[in-house]
Amino acid sequence: MSVTLKDVAEAARVSISTASRALGGGGLASERTQQRLIRIARELGYRPNPIARGLKTGQSRLVGLLIHNLTNASFQVIAEVVQARLKALNYQMLLCLAGDDPQQEHDTLNTLADHRVDGLIVVPTGRNGAQLTALADKLPIVCLVRRDNDTDLETVLADDPQGAYIGTRYLIELGHQRIGLIVGRGDTTSGRERLSGYVRALREAGIPLDETLVHAGHFEPETGSASCRKLLDLAEPPSAIFVANHEATLGALRVTAERGLSIPDNLSLLCYEDMPWFAWHRPAISIVDNGARDLANLAVDRLLNRMDAKGQGADGVREYRVGARLIKRGSCKPYVSPIRPSISRSAAKA
Amino acid sequence: MSVTLKDVAEAARVSISTASRALGGGGLASERTQQRLIRIARELGYRPNPIARGLKTGQSRLVGLLIHNLTNASFQVIAEVVQARLKALNYQMLLCLAGDDPQQEHDTLNTLADHRVDGLIVVPTGRNGAQLTALADKLPIVCLVRRDNDTDLETVLADDPQGAYIGTRYLIELGHQRIGLIVGRGDTTSGRERLSGYVRALREAGIPLDETLVHAGHFEPETGSASCRKLLDLAEPPSAIFVANHEATLGALRVTAERGLSIPDNLSLLCYEDMPWFAWHRPAISIVDNGARDLANLAVDRLLNRMDAKGQGADGVREYRVGARLIKRGSCKPYVSPIRPSISRSAAKA
DNA sequence: TAGCGTTTTGCAATCGTTTCCAGTCTATTG
DNA sequence: CAATAGACTGGAAACGATTGCAAAACGCTA
Predict the structure, then answer these.
(1) What is the pTM of this model?
(2) What is the per-residue pLDDT for B344?
């Protein structure tokens, strides 16, 4: 089929081992033969077979990235960054999508292990802790965005408590008192942490927590629409909604559009995690940016670090946080007390 | 390290070859030993090593997907579909992003070949035809979305001439005569074909082609903003714009927002290729849907077909087209002749 | 029970590398 | 000039599977 090391060795009239050493670098061959073999290899168009090499060395030059989907904007960014960084180092990315489903995650982890990936970045569901722990004995693993509580793995997280805090505080500073929160499930790191940030900001401002204003649900647009409807149907609806569940954003947006609510005049809207089109939307949507790009970069850094360290014992397992930033655009504005319909109508007539 | 076939064989007190045959299925071992070995393998937690297998068989159970990026919504869908379909068949997807750059594409193709992928789906830049042709001798390749004119590969394309045609005709039927077109570069299949569909619709309607209304450019938001500005600055600006360059959509949207144009009242806007948020945007954006999901599915079908056929000679290389559909939402409306500013002002005063 | 055909099994080669272990060659030193 | 260290090189054994070939075991029939 293709040119093998043997062909190169024969062409150069040396043994296979010499050829291997010359091309493998490391100065294990004399300068002269090395140059000669590199030349011959190039002439012949030799390309080492990573499978054969992998069999011998146990390395595949493959790195797994296991995420939930590619719909979530943060995951897109993460996938792009990871693949770009790895390619530069001559690794290939094995992208796996397991849709936040423990069973799929389990299977995928097995497959990844089978393929002898040299490293793994995973957004864990949190239900396969034991498997992850076992896997971590064999290869470097970095958890991203979510922590798996059953494991003790290096983890890169967004600073969700802080992000939700600064977002909520921003709304409070604008004068909002009744702030609706649409957030992720309580059994996820981000769900819990964002809720905690919201609660803390409220508490610090001396605003009592109103349970009816908080909706936690699945990471789906439907969550957003359902929650948004319930919030707006409240006897005393919120003047601002903080959609801290990224996937729910579309749903929330749909409902406000359906009801003809003008944002930010009738309702202030603050979302979490940027999407490219948020900036072009009318009004441009203000967000708490979780720093997906930096998260991915840091995860890659940590992974490479571990891969280089190459199993140097039970080294310090750390947790990293990437801070969130508030990006003010046009979807939030200072609170104005609502004018009652009757008054409003007469005012308009005046 | 892990459990190998040898371990299983020893535990079962048979030779390695027997173990291999028993586990490999195909009835090459007696029913009894087969059952026994399957049981023992399971008990031991044996998982075959795909690398070793790959070395012998030349198969990797890896399939490459080479696309430009993950920002483009169609590519997201394609990546999700391909990975889901492949996983179900126990293949892994090697996702590569080459950003429409011939050099990166070239390198990536090499790497993919090195890793002995069993098949490849590629959105070609069109500049590495020779390499693709050479590669096609060794493994099944399906081109997607773009054709590489220098090759003769199985290709799955969107029906862009038709898509652009129905889109343009829709606008014409709404009464628009001056229709701006923002389209992709002329050296891409989609760029040329969408332009041709636009031209045909115009011709059939007896509307002369006005070159100043057509802008072809790179697949970037900037193209959209620059082109949109030029169109709107025309002495006689278009009453509708057809953004047939997906990436340019955001740019066009930004400009219309900047200028405070109300869509569809001041301008009808029709875009190409759906994005999830188009439906939630205000107004919801009408589009020509290129059928990304079906494109991906068909590409996978064709690839699997070729992989099964396993080099059955120079079998019929076909080109497939997936038809486009018009999805009417709220961003286009019937043409009304513009009221001159002076008249408008006096009319308002009246 | 011998002879024959059919399963079923084991041996060993192979895939393309890497790497250990000796062996060869050169150069240096006493 | 002989001895010896050091640098290079070649042979061969891995890595973990698959697979052609031949031997063994089996079931039949005569």
Answers:
(1) 0.90
(2) 43
